[in-house]
Amino acid sequence: MQYYYITVTYSDFLVIRQTSTMVGRVLTLLKEGICPANILAMTFTTAAASEMRDRIGTVVGKAIAKELAISTFHSFCLQLCRSHAEMLGRTAEFLIYGHGQQRRAIIEALRLTNGEEKKEIEIEACEELNGCDIARSLKANSKKWLKFVIQAKTSGKTPEDLKKMGQRNGAVILEKYNDILRSCNALDYHDFINSSVKLLSDFREVRKECQDTWKAIVVDEFQDTSSMQYFLLRILASHNHVTIVGDEDQVDLFQFNFI
C-alpha cells in the first residue's frame, strides 16, 4: 500500500500516512520529471526540513537536493514577505519583533488609545492592581493584551473583525499595535502567515508567481496546521498538485477539506 502512495502521478491529490514516505514522494516527483525548483516541501521544524533534504541528497545528489524548496511554514512565509515587503508597507529589511519588542509595542498601543476605550482600559487595569497608578497598571495589563493580540492574529482576525464581534477595545488595541509595527518597519512572528495570506489573496501577481513556481507541493504533519496555514495551502495548492502527510485517523477529513 505504501508503494502505491509514492508512485501515483503528481497531478493527483494525495494523502500519505508516514513522514518517511514523504521523502519517497519527492523522489517520485523528481523521477517523473518535475524540476526540483518547482517542488515545495513544507515542514514544521527546521530539523525535519534539514533531515529531509539530507535523505533526498543521498539519493539524487546534494546539488539537486539544494534546488528543492524544503522549508518550515514560517521560513517560507518570511521569505515571501521579504520578497514583496513593499506591498505590506515595509522594506525588505524589515525588523522581526520578538516577545520583548511586542510587549513594548502593546504598552505604546495602550498609551495611544483615546476616548472611551482608553478610559475603560485604564479603569480595568487599575481595578486589577487595586490602585490608580496608570503607567504601572497599563504595563502590568500589557501581558493580557499581548496574549489577546497573539490569539487574534493566530486566528486571522483583523480590527474590523473584532469590531463586528463587539470587541471594541480589542479592535482598537490591535489596530494601534499594527500601526506601531508598520511605523517601525517591523513584523512579528505571527504576522508571517497572515501577511503571506494577504499577499496571495490581495495581489494577483504574487499568487500567480507562486502558483507558477510551485507546481507540486508536499506538506508534513498536516493535522497540526492552523487555520491560517490551511488557508495559505489552499491558495498555493489551488492546482491540486499536493501531497499531505497526516494522522491516519484524519485522512478522510483532510481529503474532504482539500479537494
Automatic annotation (TrEMBL):
Highest taxon, organism lineage: Eukaryota
Q: Which UniProt keywords apply?
A: ATP-binding, Helicase, Hydrolase, Nucleotide-binding
- Show the Pfam families listed in the entry: UvrD-helicase (PF00580)
Q: Where is the UvrD-like helicase ATP-binding domain?
A: 1-259
Recall the GO molecular function terms of this protein's record. Answer: 3'-5' DNA helicase activity; ATP binding; DNA binding; hydrolase activity
**Which biological process, per GO, is one annotated for this protein?**
recombinational repair
Which InterPro entries does this one have? Answer: DExx_box_DNA_helicase_dom_sf (IPR013986), DNA_helicase_UvrD/REP (IPR000212), P-loop_NTPase (IPR027417), UvrD-like_ATP-bd (IPR014016)
Q: Name one GO cellular component term.
A: nucleus
Q: What is this protein called?
A: DNA helicase II / ATP-dependent DNA helicase PcrA
